[in-house]
Amino acid sequence: MKILFVASEAHPLIKTGGLADVAGSLSSALAGQGQDVRLLIPNYQAIGPRTDIRYLGSLRIDNRNINLLETRIAETGVTAWLIDYPAYYNYPGNPYLDASGEPWANNAERFALFCKVAVAVAMNRVKQNWQPDIVHCNDWQSGLVPALLSLEPEAKPATVFTIHNLAYQGVFPPETLTSLGLPVELWHPEGLEFHDQLSFMKGGLVYADAITTVSPTYAQEIQTEAFGCGLEGLLSHRQADLVGILNGIDEGQWDPHTDPHIAQAFDASTLALKQANKAALQQQFGLPIDDTLPVFALISRLVEQKGIDLVIACLPDMMALPMQFVLLGDGNKTFISQLQSLAADYPERFALRIGYNEKLAHQIEAGADVFLMPSRFEPCGLNQMYSQRYGTLPLVRNTGGLADTVVDALPQTLADHTATGFVFSEANPGPLLEAIKRALTVYSMPKAWQTMQVQAMGKDFSWQRSAAEYWQVYCRVTS
Ligand code: ADP
């Protein structure tokens, strides 16, 4: 199958978040399965000069001359087509935000052009003799593609639209429709119009043949008012075409057996070796080296979405329990100062590192016993999956991808050896603390704990599994 993957970021070319991982890994997994994949992405300045760039051709859209370049991503073997239009993409820094953290003022123009080029490629109008069977779009930046393709009279590919984050919708003033030269037939409440504004996201949600999001539970949640960001009605209307497919993880990068960042390699058959990583972690964070106390950990953006306020609220109670706690993160200044003052109050129990540190993240995953993710919402989440691979049992709130990837330790799941972590439901400090106490109870039973670790470490979080599910969606929309 020929698949055009339309994404505004893709690892390792450019990454700001999970979308880049999905674009990089999924396109690679599909190519590895023998599919003919092209990744289409703007040629941002941050992509930098590449040695193997090939000029494919130029096209003219809205009186603009655009070059199409080709490069092969060595790490994944996938061919990427870069949209070269320096006036829109040759800016320093972030693809979406300017230096002050505000969206680029011309984002509507930048991503409308991105979509129009994608349509030209999809309709085989770029003289490459290559027409996709599937156009797979991602997030609002590519939302106009299904909408514009819907107006093509014939020979159009099927479309799939994936929601990575429903909170960002690409909503612009109504006059943007004309300034972007978009067809007026798309302007109505069942089209691109969203409360008198122009919504790029709706282009994907209304017109794509299939919609996916990054976990089955989030697929249900976004059909409700609490999570739907105003689009819950449309999403439940399209529920027959909406499916949740969990992201995979990079199993090469996150493997305790080969991880170059950690003190001691280990796997499920040599779990006792994990202890050396715990001692290294305690030392690294300046905590007493004590193998009897469980080390709880948290690595996160310090924002309300991640339930950091819940952790802060129950931290004094946690400190009265037999445990240590290490936290790595950056974000909200108020959270940071509250955490710093708590770290000063409990120097033997709680240690904090502010900042982004990939290597330390690996060391924490390897050395901790329990990993906290009390998120208010979590479309998929990655750390709970990394944690399980490292035998670090996740303690999570029952939402989104967390609900789909962690099996709560209950009498039944402990008995049948399916338990891999601890789950609580209500987003309040009390229920979080209760779950922490449950984790301590199981921790005091080494055999049960070890059984959970082995079960967690054996779970399949591979991209191969995800790619097989996307493949089923592709087959459905093309049949
Ligand atoms: P989100 O994309 O909402 O931030 P995810 O769990 O999907 O949450 O992915 C976050 C990724 O970023 C994880 O791999 C996590 O380990 C990493 N991360 C977050 N904060 C830090 C940090 N301060 N240092 C190192 N890695 C971090």
What report would you give on this structure?
This protein is an alpha/beta fold. The chain folds into two domains: 2-248 and 463-478, Rossmann fold, CATH 3.40.50.2000; 268-457, Rossmann fold (3-Layer(aba) Sandwich), CATH 3.40.50. It has helices spanning 18-32, 86-89, 107-122, 144-150, 176-179, 200-207, 216-221, 232-237, 274-284, 308-319, 333-345, 358-367, 383-389, 400-405, 411-415, 429-443, 446-457, 463-478; strands at 2-6, 36-42, 54-61, 64-73, 78-84, 134-138, 158-163, 171-172, 193-194, 197-199, 210-213, 242-244, 295-302, 324-331, 350-354, 370-373, 393-397, 422-424. A nine-stranded mixed beta sheet has the order 3-4-5-2-1-6-7-11-12, with helices on both faces. A six-stranded parallel beta sheet has the order 15-14-13-16-17-18, sandwiched between helices. The two termini are 12 Å apart. 49% of the residues are buried. The mean pLDDT is 96. The structure holds adenosine-5'-diphosphate. Residues 17-18, 299-301, 328-330, 356-358, 361, 380-383 line the site of adenosine-5'-diphosphate.
Topology of this protein?
Layout: E1 2-6, H1 18-32, E2 36-42, E3 54-61, E4 64-73, E5 78-84, H2 86-89, H3 107-122, E6 134-138, H4 144-150, E7 158-163, E8 171-172, H5 176-179, E9 193-194, E10 197-199, H6 200-207, E11 210-213, H7 216-221, H8 232-237, E12 242-244, H9 274-284, E13 295-302, H10 308-319, E14 324-331, H11 333-345, E15 350-354, H12 358-367, E16 370-373, H13 383-389, E17 393-397, H14 400-405, H15 411-415, E18 422-424, H16 429-443, H17 446-457, H18 463-478
Helix pairs in contact: 1-18, 3-4, 4-6, 9-12, 10-11, 10-16
The structure holds adenosine-5'-diphosphate (ADP).
